[in-house]
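A reminder before we start the practical. When you read a complex entry, don't treat the lines as separate problems. The point of joint prediction is that each chain is placed relative to the others, so the output describes one connected object in space. Small molecules and nucleic acid strands, if listed, are placed in the same frame. In the example below there are two entries. Take a minute to note the order of the lines before looking further.
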Amino acid sequence: MTLLTEKRAPRTQHEKRKIRGKVHLREHLMGWLFVGPFGVVFLAFLIAPLGYALYLSLFQKKLIGGTSFVLFDNYVKAFTDPSFLSGVWFVLRFSLVSIPLQILIALALALILDAVTTLFARFSRLMIFLPYAIPTVIGAVMWGFLYSKGFGPLTDIFGLFGATAPDFLSSDLIFYGLLNVVTWQWAGYYMIILYAALQGVDPTLYEAARMDGAGRWQIATRIKIPLIAPALILILVFSLIGTLQFFNEPQILRYLAAGTIGTDFTPNMYAYQQAFSLANFNYGSAISFALGGIVFICVYAFLFFTRKRRSFL
Amino acid sequence: MKRRRILATVAMLAAGSGLVACSSDGGGSDASNCTNTITKQNVPVVTMWGWYPNTQLVVDNFNKQHDDVQVCWTNVGQGGDEYDKFQTAISAGTGAPDVIMVEADRIPTFQIQGALVDIKQYGYDAVKANYGEGAWKDVSVGDKVYGVPVDGGPMGMIYRKDIFDKYKITPPKTWAEYEQAAQKVKDAGGPLFGDLGANVPAVLMALQIQKGASPFTYDPAQPKSIGVKLNDQASKDVLDYWGGLAKKGLVGTQDQFTPEYISGVINGNYATYISAAWAPGYLTGAGVGKGQDTGKFAVAPLPQWDPANPVQVNWGGSAFSVTKQAKKPELAAKVAYGLYADKESLTDGWTNQIIFPLNLTALKDPAFVDLKVAFFDGQQANKEVYLPAADAYKGVAYAPFGQYYLDAMTKQVSEVIKGSITGSQAADRLQEDVAKYAKEQGFTVQ
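Here is the predicted structure of the whole assembly.
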């Protein structure tokens, strides 16, 4: 911009300002045109539906008496609704167990694969990542069959030792059944992210550490892990958001164990039931927003406590 | 510079018009994406959703026989999947078909939302005599008719002849005998006698009605008031009975309609299956009765509480309803009345065990009455069990919030199965839960 004006003859202040204004305007316009297509899609498919859902959540529709504006009544109801609260409690418990488990497995695998560079390591990397490439629905169906008492392998395996196979679809063990499915599906994905982060670490650091007498274990815990901490935090946030919004796996396994997995098993499933099978879009929206609020608080709290280490957001 | 700006503008407009194109593309109610092929052109078209396995044939038969209207059929999923889509279309005010296949117990749920048309004025009198009284009651709310009955589910007790022979028992006639027989088989180291599935609350509801319960009373003349009686003695007795059987290990607690359950049925893990007249067709489709278990099944009348006063009940069954979104309700009603009502379609339905017809032309057809059912090894199941049950069926008033009731029942039954509460407690909790929901929905509960 300065180059443009300098090349020309000197002008008065007023003229300069006028030209600068014109250039500004033109640049502004260009900028808007470039973000325009994205902006339209963003508004139409994210902001507008969110706004509409928020609007819906402020109303109440009854079979008798029709629709009325109730402000935050739906939210008050949600936070006193045992179905919603038990769902939230479940996903919180599930997060507390499943996230550390997945991340420990992913981290261990990434560190091993980073240290070993044989052909077998590359093959293993692909195989560990593979479950993530299988659609969630197919994965859940597959595990549903593997858990089967009638024709799954568990009965045979436990039978060899004269024991009865555990029923992972019963209400006592469903937590572990789901934990297994989720870990199987996601640990490989997190492993790849951590592995990529490890590849970005400067190898001369390891050399320096070795010269100072550090062993493999020390290099891993004192150098590698601290250096990939930002990636660790990234996947922690991903998994936290994903787990609090738990839906696909229990919804699919519900077809096999509707008694164990109720319609209010997780908050998202409860919102789905309210909106689409009970036609209560208003309360369904309120549940979604309430869950969104909980997710936001959890993620914010997490980022607050780890603020020194993060390099994103 | 200028050219680029024009390009950018064009690109943006193109993106924008793409969005408009997306949003103006309507739902499933247009006639352009039928599953069937309509051969007659320039004839008004009525759209229809349904999931009978032989719908293709039924629709083709109807279209062949009619020159003034043609049916455009789409299969949008079975049961719950279809209802969820219909429910969304009702809420959206657009996207529903003209005619929809619904199970009788869902009719009040959609009717109360004003989503269905009373078809009494569109030719009811002409076909009234074609169906029994119980069949009409199931598709009516008050004195208004919201569907044309197609198939029903008179209940019976399907059992394994090989297991009964092995343990030397005869089909129990009462529920007390049923428990004794179950105990006898268990003591002899035999398989489970039946199954209490948390995901089939409709069966338990039917069995409660058999004992004398009437869960819901609803008179559309007083739309604000509803009777909810889910914890009367009869309801409690039935839940206690089944909870007790499960606790004693006499029956299984497996969810039904799952591969797990079906493989159990094939393996002979269950001596009986308390089910409806459409079950042989369903089981055959699921692969039962084809291999090692060929010809091992038979059916007996449903056990009774009081053999002196037998009560017959029904599970499932469906109808064609006309939706409020139909642009020409009269034409749609013509389709609803005519579809699956011709002899050819009905015969295909019952010979292939897809439906237990409610149309009296089929029920009185000697070929149907005397049919030797292959699944039951040639037993004349219609004559012996299902026809008497269908004849004696009085009909039921279903809840206008059936989905919620059934979900809530599943929840309580799964607690009973876990052993954390008794059947009576489950009935009390269910009453509390459903009554609360009814109040939230604006009803006065009695």
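Discuss with your neighbour: The longest strand of chain B covers residues 148-160. What might explain this?
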